Amino acid sequence: MEKEKLHTVNEPDLEYGLYSYADYLTWKINDMMELIRGKAYKWAAAAPGMSHQKVSVRLTYLLHEHLKSKKCQVFHAPFDVRLPVKSIKNKDIDTVLQPDLCVICDESKLDEAGCIGAPDLVVEILSPGNNRKELKLKYEVYEESGVKEYWIIHPNEQTLLIYTLINGKYQPSHLYTSGDEVESKWVEGFRLNLSEIFEK
Predict the structure, then answer these.
(1) pLDDT at position 59, please?
(2) Distance from C-alpha of 166 to C-alpha of 157, rounded to nearest angstrom
């Protein structure tokens, strides 16, 4: 019994515990974990589906090609984005997310552990495991922390919704669908025809 406790002592209590990034670094868990305001979330246990992966790979490639020789960089999950409120000390950070893709233009926010501070663009690609609670919580912390642009892509329905930060609040776009052309307001010059990332 004692032996069993030793193996589980660092696992988060998903119901009641409040944790920091310092705790997060000690967890030995195979599932994807994120921290939102100190609460630990274990998202979908299964790997993302094929349509999710195709959209992710295509969009990462297009962003990477566009950003060559520019100061911005694109990263894809798993990649820790720490969103500090009080200080940048590990013990004080209580929100750590792993967006599907993110673009960071301020090099000072990057270190070997990932990103510390708000990316300029965050992209979340929906999977069957995503739920409304997850989307609501992430929307709130991305808005509060100052992520300038937040894209939500639904690969099965082939839609994109863009939230743009204006005066500290997100303003939604209309719903874009395959064949529509979109332009990022914060990743300079990046234009995308959605048919480039969705199946024909």
Answers:
(1) 98
(2) 27
| Residue 179 backbone phi and psi in degrees, to 5 | 100, -25
Are 99 and 119 in contact by the 8 Å Cβ rule? The answer is yes
Q: What local confidence, expressed as pLDDT, does residue 48 receive?
A: 76
CA-based nearest residue to 23, from 90, 95, 110, 122:
90
Alpha-helical runs (H) found in the chain: 2-8, 21-24, 50-67, 132-145
In tens, the pLDDT along 168-187 reads 999 999 999 999 999 999 99
Residue type, 125: I
Arithmetic mean of pLDDT over the chain: 90
Cα–Cα distance measured from residue 64 to residue 106, given in angstroms and rounded to the nearest whole number: 16
